[in-house]
Amino acid sequence: MSNIGSYEERRKSFDWKEAERELGYPENGNHNIAWYCVDRHCEKGRGGKTALIWEGHAGEEKRFTFDDLRLHTNAFAARFRELGVEPGERICLFMDKIPELYFSFLGGLKMGGIVQPLFSAFGEDSLITRLEDAETRAIVTTKKHVRKVRRILDRLPHLQHILVVDADGFALKDRETAFDYEKAPPVETFPAHAVTPESPSVLHYTSGTTGKPKGALHVHGSLVSQYITTKWVLDLQDDDIYWCTADPGWVTGTSYGIIGPWSNGCTQLVLDSGFGSARWYEFMQKHRATVWYSAPTAIRLLMRDGTELVQKHDLSSLRHLASVGEPLNAEAVVWSKEAFGKEFHDTYWQTETGCMVLCNYPGLPVKPGSMGKPFPGIEAGVVDPKNHEPVKQGTVGLIALRPGWPSMFRAYWNNEKTYNEKFQNGWYICGDRASIDEDGYYWFVGRDDDVINTGGHLVGPFEIESALIEHEAVAESAAVGKPDKVNMEVVKAFVALKPGFEPNDDTELSIMNFIRKKLSPLAMPQEIEFVPSLPKTRSGKILRRMLRAKEWGEEIGDTSTLEDD
Ligand code: WTA
Known about the structure:
Elements: H1 7-13, H2 16-23, H3 33-43, E1 50-55, E2 61-65, H4 66-83, E3 90-94, H5 99-110, E4 114-117, H6 124-134, E5 138-141, H7 143-152, E6 161-164, E7 176-178, E8 200-206, E9 214-219, H8 222-232, E10 241-244, H9 251-263, E11 267-271, H10 277-287, E12 291-294, H11 296-304, H12 307-311, E13 320-323, H13 330-340, E14 344-348, E15 358-359, E16 373-374, E17 380-383, E18 397-401, E19 411-412, H14 416-421, E20 423-424, E21 427-436, E22 442-447, E23 452-454, E24 457-459, H15 461-468, E25 474-484, E26 488-497, H16 505-518, E27 527-530, H17 544-551
Parallel strand pairs: 1-11, 3-4, 3-5, 5-6, 6-7, 10-11, 10-12, 12-13, 13-14, 26-27
Antiparallel strand pairs: 1-2, 8-9, 9-19, 14-15, 15-16, 17-18, 18-21, 20-21, 21-22, 23-24, 25-26
Helix pairs in contact: 2-8, 3-4, 3-5, 3-9, 4-5, 8-9
Residues 206, 250-252, 324-328, 346-351, 371, 430, 432, 444, 447, 453, 458 line the site of 5'-O-[(S)-ethoxy(hydroxy)phosphoryl]adenosine (WTA).
C-alpha cells in the first residue's frame, strides 16, 4: 500500500493543493492537460517509457512510448491548426479505440480545442443532435464511420473539416481531408496552447430524462482530480500495467483511460475489440496487467462464464481491481475474490463529476454491494429530495456533493437553466438515490429520473421516443428500462401503432433495426410491447414511470401523484 496512505489520515489532511504540487502546477503559466500527460514526462527524461500497448481485433499489436505520444499529439495539434481550427472550437472524435483516438484527443487539447469524443457506434440521429448542439468545427474519423457523417453533412454548416485517419486509397468528398500520423512529417515541437485551469477542455454528452442530450463541459483544471484519484483509488504506480476497459466515447474512457493514467506517467493497455471472456483473460495474461478498471456488466458476463475459465489463465499479475458505471452487486464482489483472489472495488461518479466521488478506497474494508465512502477532498451527503437538507443516517435520499472540486463540470453546453437546476441549497444534486450506513458507507438505491442505464451506458428515453415516432408504423411510444440479469437494464418500448399496421414480428424487427441504425445498438429496444394506447396524465403526458414500475414489479400507488412528473 505505497501511494495511497490511510483513508482516515487522507481525509483529515486532504488538500487539492497537494495534487497540484505533485503535478508541479504553476501559480501562473500553462495548465494544458496534454502537456502534463505527455511532454512533462519527456522533459523529465522519461520519454522512452512505454505509454500505450494497443491491440486490435485481429491481435495485431502496436506500442508507443511517451516520446511517440509527444510526436503524434504534436502532429495532430499542428494539423488542426493548419486547417484553421481555433482554440475553443469543438473537435469531435468519432472512431473505434484505435491509437489515433488517443493521439487526437491529446492533440486537440494541445492546440487549445475543446475535444468532444463520441461513441463510434452512434448512428446518424445521435450524431447530429450532438454535433449541431456543439456547433462542432472538425471531426476526426475513419472510412468505416465517415459514411454516417456524410449523410448528415447538409445539416451541419459549422462542420468544416472531416479528417479521415485511414484514407489510403479512399475517395474523399466535400470537406474531407486525409491525415495519416505515420506518414505526416514529424513535428518535433508544438508548444501547448496556454490555458488556465478554468479553460474548457472536454465536452462529454450525457442523456437526461427530457430534452436532448446535454453537453457536460469540463476544464483543464480537471486534471488535478483525475490525477490524484487515479493515483490513490486505482493505486497506480510507476511499474503498473493498467487496463481501463472503457471507450473514450464515455467519460470513464477519458478521465481514467487517458488523463488519469498518463498524467501519472503509467503504461496502459487498450484493446480495440468487443467483449469476450477468454479474449479478455488472454489479453491480461499476455501483457501482465496489474491494475484493472472495468464495469459491472462485464464482470457479470465474466461471472457467467465461470471460475474455471479464469483458472485456465495466469492472471497472477493482477493486484488491484475496480469498477464503475452501475450498481456492482455483492455477488460479483464475492465472486471476484474467489476467481481472482481480489475484490472489485466499486467507485461511483458521473460525467458531470469528472472524477470518482465515492469509492472503495484501497485499504478500507470492502462491504460488498456498497459504493464505499467519499474520496478525501469530496464533501458528500444524502439529502431530502424536497428541502435538500441532509437526511438521517439510514434514510434514502439524493446523493449530493458540495461544489468546488477541480473536475466538476462547469456548464451544460447552451443549457444554463438545466445546469443551474442541478444546484440546490449549496449542493450539487447527482440525481441518484442512496443511503449512508452507520460506518459512513454509501448504498445505491436507484436513479431519481427515467434515464436508462444499460450495461453502464446512459440512454435517454426522450431520445428513443423521438426516434421511434419517426418510424412509419409508430403513432406514440414510451421507452423505459426493464430489468436484465447481465446489463442491469435494457430498453423496452411500448408502442401504439398507426392504423393499418399490424403488431407482429416483422413490425417489431423493423422498429428495432430502425432505432439501432438511427441511434445506437445500446438504445435499441430489446423488447417491444404493442399497446392500443399509452397511459397519460390529464394534461396528456405519457406516464412513463407507471410503465417502468410495472416492469420492475413495483407498487405504482396513487397515480395522481405522478401527474406533475
Ligand atoms: C450510475 C459514468 C451505481 C449512476 C462514470 C450515475 C452508478 C450514472 C455507479 C453516471 C455505481 C455510476 N453504482 N450506479 N458505482 N457509478 N453509476 O454519467 O446512476 O455515464 O448517475 O458516468 O451511472 O453515468 P455516467
